Amino acid sequence: MRKTVIAGNWKMNMTPKAAGEFIRALAPEVKGKDKCDIVLCVPFVDIATAAEAAKGTNIKIGAQNVHFEEKGAFTGEISAQMLLEAGAEYVIVGHSERRQYFGETDATVNLRTKAALAAGLKVILCLGEVKEQRLSGITDEVVAMQTKLDLAGITEEQLKNVIIAYEPVWAIGTGLTATPEQADETCGVIRKTIAAIYSEKAADGIVIQYGGSMNDGNAAELLAKANVDGGLIGGASLKTDKFTAIVDAANK
Ligand code: PGA
Q1: Which residue has the CA at smallest separation from atom 6 of ligand 1?
Q2: How far apart are CA 173 and CA 166, in angstroms?
Q3: Burial bucket for residue 33 (CB in 10 Å: 0-12, 13-18, 19+)
Q4: How high is the pLDDT of residue 108?
């Protein structure tokens, strides 16, 4: 059985101080709600404070990106080892905002995923189609191709530390959500692709989240779908009450 994973992606929001306060307020609300894993992916500078505040709770801390080299002359970049030492267990790789605004490609997403896994981080690998691709009817091909390219060279053993977040780009931060049927269908295409690359066992085991305007109002319906094993939540992860409601939906 796959465990549901509810992950928040704070993006460029919350200072270290605000992160500590948020987690101290959230912890009692989600205490004992263990039918899902709970992760907050925070800005780099918040990681240490967030990890400290999350100690002894069921909240885990992640980062939002990682560089693929171990060290060296890469001004502004952060290595996997740095993230681990700061207290991160997870890292988001390949978010569409990184692909759209910061020039990331499937090739760099693949390198980052490999580096993170090699260092011992768990990866939340984001992929998904843009609006024109959905309208042209090529969503299945796009997500299958991204899955193959982003996971190239990653072993079935390493795949146990990968979560895939299916995030239709047209649904991120727009208030538009994929219907539960669309989310289920496309997560299913990704699962079939995993079966083709690896095995049925790997496909059965991999956690595939939906992301894109998931909130307290639509989470229950989305999470009820067989192929949707959790959520990657942006906007609604910035309010403790909304995020708690999503955790509650995953604990029904
Ligand atoms: P959103 O963001 O929930 O604000 O749409 C999701 C994401 O970007 O991961």
Answers
A1: 234
A2: 14
A3: middle
A4: 98
Q: Which atom of ligand 1 is nearest to the CA of 236?
A: 3
Query: For residues 78 and 44, is the Cβ–Cβ distance under 8 A?
Result: yes
Maximum separation of any 2 CA atoms in the chain, in Å: 48
pLDDT score recorded for residue 128: 98
Where do the domains of the chain lie, and which CATH numbers do they carry? Answer: 4-250 (3.20.20.70)
Residue 128 — left, alpha, or beta (φ > 0 → left; ψ -120 to 50 → alpha)? left
What distance in Å separates the CA atoms of residue 114 and residue 93, rounded to the nearest whole number? 10
Give the model confidence (pLDDT) of 213-232 as tens digits: 999 999 999 999 999 999 99
Q: Which of 97, 104, 129, 167 is catalytic?
A: 167
**167 part of the active site:** yes
Separation of CA 72 and ligand 1 centre (Å): 32
Residue where the block lists tokens 């988001």: 92
DSSP type of residue 2 = P
Residues with CB under 6 A from ligand 1: 9, 167, 172-173, 211-214, 232-236
Per-residue pLDDT tens digits for 149-205:
999 999 999 999 999 999 999 999 898 899 999 999 999 999 999 999 999 999 999
